Amino acid sequence: MKLSSTTAASVGLAIASIALYLLPNADAAAALVDPATKIKFDDNLGTLPLFGVGVRKKGPIKVYSVGMYSDEDAKTSVSSISKSNKAGALSAIRDSLKSTTQTTFLLKMNFKVGAEKMAAAIADSVSPRATNKAAVETLKTLILDGVASKGAATPGTILQFDCSDEGVKVSVDGSEIGTAPGLRQAFCDVFLDDKAVSPALRSSCVENCCS
What we know:
Elements: H1 5-22, H2 26-30, E1 32-33, E2 40-41, E3 44-45, E4 48-58, E5 61-69, H3 72-77, H4 86-97, E6 103-109, E7 113-114, H5 115-126, H6 133-148, E8 152-153, E9 158-164, E10 167-172, E11 175-180, H7 184-192, H8 199-209
Antiparallel strand pairs: 1-2, 3-4, 4-5, 5-6, 6-9, 7-8, 9-10, 10-11
Helix pairs in contact: 4-8, 5-6
């Protein structure tokens, strides 16, 4: 059966529309999804690119997913390092963060945790890595105050930790709570050193940033 020119044109437009629909969205492709929780992280947080994502587990419980964001220059500086040299790649990533303006850890809750328990868990992870114990107590109080204001860290709650030379700024669901001084390196190490709380984040950073 021969189609008229008008019908053929309509069919062509329909096929083109379907093809465009099936093409992967550029923004979606650049974002990352934590495979353990299916929680999505945007490819950028302001001007900071996403380095990697991972889950924080407590036994079988998937407590939260975490995404790490930092300077574009830091990400570029490790892009030529081979993924096969995981130890070397992780060391380079940690070193690259020391010269950045800001590194942010975005925690997206997957499991309900009480305010006191959430604050204590993070503070207890930072404390062995920090020399300024008073600053750790400040961090604990900031997290407690921020989470307690909404009752608990329920699924969907977002805790943001901006690490800079000034310290660690705490925000909960977009509301800034305050800053704990002098904990930048200690907080970064919670997620990146050999005893990191999310091995999956470390692996994701290597996979996403290195060649």
